[in-house]
Each structure stands twice: as structure tokens, then as C-alpha cells.
Amino acid sequence: MYSIALICEVGASTGMVVRRMVAAAREVGIDAEIKAYPFSQIELVLEAYDYVLLGPQMRFRLKQVRDEHPECAARVDVVAPMDFATMNGEKILKQAIAAIDALGV
Predict the structure, then answer these.
(1) pLDDT at 103 over 80
(2) In sequence order, what are the residues at sequence separation of 6 or more whose Cβ sits closer than 8 angstroms to the Cβ of residue 28?
(3) How many other C-beta atoms lie within 10 A of the C-beta of residue 44?
(4) What percent of the chain has pLDDT over 90?
(5) Measured between alpha carbons, how far is 52 from 69 in angstroms, rounded to an integer?
(6) Which DSSP string do the residues of 9-37 spell out, in sequence order?
(7) SS3 for 86?
(8) CB 8 within 8 A of CB 15
(9) pLDDT tens digits, residue range 5-39?
(10) Please, are residues 89 and 20 in contact by the beta-carbon 8 Å criterion?
């Protein structure tokens, strides 16, 4: 099972993206736990999930997260702005799964 977290400042639009990702996973039979969290919970999320995606509006936090948690640096990235804006759950899911598979998590 893949575990993927999306991080944002508050969570409204990210919650919709998560629902689209969950639907895309179900559609192709991928077993995945996908949830959204506020940035205030980043430390708990890093411990609990295979991969963490920051919303595009959180891009400025990527370096901070990687610097403060070097052991998790390879497991954190940012959702492409266009994919997020169009709520392309399938494409974001594929991005996360490809990264998890590449890491061998």
C-alpha cells in the first residue's frame, strides 16, 4: 500500500485534490492511503507517510523541510502548479507513486 500526504496551509483546495487522487487510485485498483494535512503537522506526517507533497502555494517551505529533516528530504516534493490548479488527481497520484517506487519505499 502507498501512503501519500498532501500538505497545505489550510486545506480546502488540497482536500478536493486528495478526493480526486483517491478516486483515481480506486479506478485503477491501486491500494493507497491519501490524506491532506496542514503544514503545522509536517513532523507527524513525515514519520507516518511514504511520500509527502506540498501544495504549490507551499513551495517556499520545501527547502526548509528538507533542511530540517534531511533523512526525509528525498520523500518530499511539490505538486506541479498546473496539476494542482486543474485538480488532476490522476497525474499527481502517478507523480507520487513513481517517486515512491524509485525510492524503493
Answers:
(1) yes
(2) none
(3) 11
(4) 91
(5) 12
(6) SS-HHHHHHHHHHHHHHHHHT--EEEEEE
(7) coil
(8) no
(9) 999 987 667 889 999 999 999 999 999 999 999 99
(10) yes
Higher pLDDT, 105 or 89: 89
Q: Which of 44, 74, 45, 49 is nearest to 62 (CA)?
A: 74
The secondary structure of 55-78 as a DSSP string is -GGGGGGHHHHHHH-GGGGGGEEE
d(CA 87, CA 105): 26
Our answer to whether residue 8 is catalytic in this structure is: yes
Could you tell me if 54 and 77 are in contact, meaning their C-beta atoms sit under 8 angstroms apart? yes
Give residue 91's pLDDT. 97
Catalytic residue among 7, 8, 45, 76: 8
Residues listed for the chain: 105
Residue 57 amino acid letter? Q
Strand partners for 34:
4
Classify 49 in phi/psi space as left (phi over 0), alpha (psi -120 to 50) or beta. beta
